[in-house]
Request: fold
Amino acid sequence: IHANTHALAHIIEHAEQTNSKFIYGSEIGHDNVPWGINGEEMRLILLLTSGAEIDFQDVLKVFKAATSDAGKNLGLPLLGTLMPGAPADVIAIRGNPFERFKLLEYPDLVISGGHTIVNNFSFVAKSEETRR
Reply:
């Protein structure tokens, strides 16, 4: 990825001038793709697209490029949304990714295809007595 950063920055710079849409996709389902690389790629995209200062809208634009905007461009409008019937995988992290984008590289919870893949959260079930 780092070898192509200059070329990617050039493409992004010209995409802004032509009102091109920007979406993100990944190949993380393959064994030869390092775990967490998609978070690093998204962080790099954020740095290349945000300008001098990163604000909430910059982060939101990258999230949408990797989720709902990508789904719309693939002709799958529910992809990347949390709606009934949507084909959604879910991740969760400790902390605020809008403040520390790098947290996305190693999520604490990954649910894919309805199966829990990673769960670093410890949930304590409440007993019947404490629910009353």
In short: The chain has five helices and three strands.
